[in-house]
Amino acid sequence: MDGILEELLRLEGVKNRALIDVDPAVYEDSVQKQIGLINDPGISEAARSGTDTLLAISRLNSFNTTLYENLLATAPWILAASRSYTGQGQITDPASTHAFSAEV
Fold first, then answer.
1. pLDDT at 101
2. 71 — phi, psi (to 5°)?
3. Is the whole model's pTM more than 0.70, yes or no?
């Protein structure tokens, strides 16, 4: 599991660049790779030994979330073209998703 946190951080950086470049394909690919890494059972051990990297991931993730929200606020056309995710991390088709739903 050596390097799992470094790879998550690298992918978060790729997502940051994709948001800046407005590149949904690269962003989506990075999200899917991160989901695969997060679902890896060895991540708990890596998180215990990599607190500095975990903190960097957290900060960059927070920044990316703010950047994404600002992007949607200033360019609402992106929302219409973007995909959304279910609570299980699966992609939903925006053309077929028009109803409101909430997960508890």
1. 54
2. -65, -45
3. no
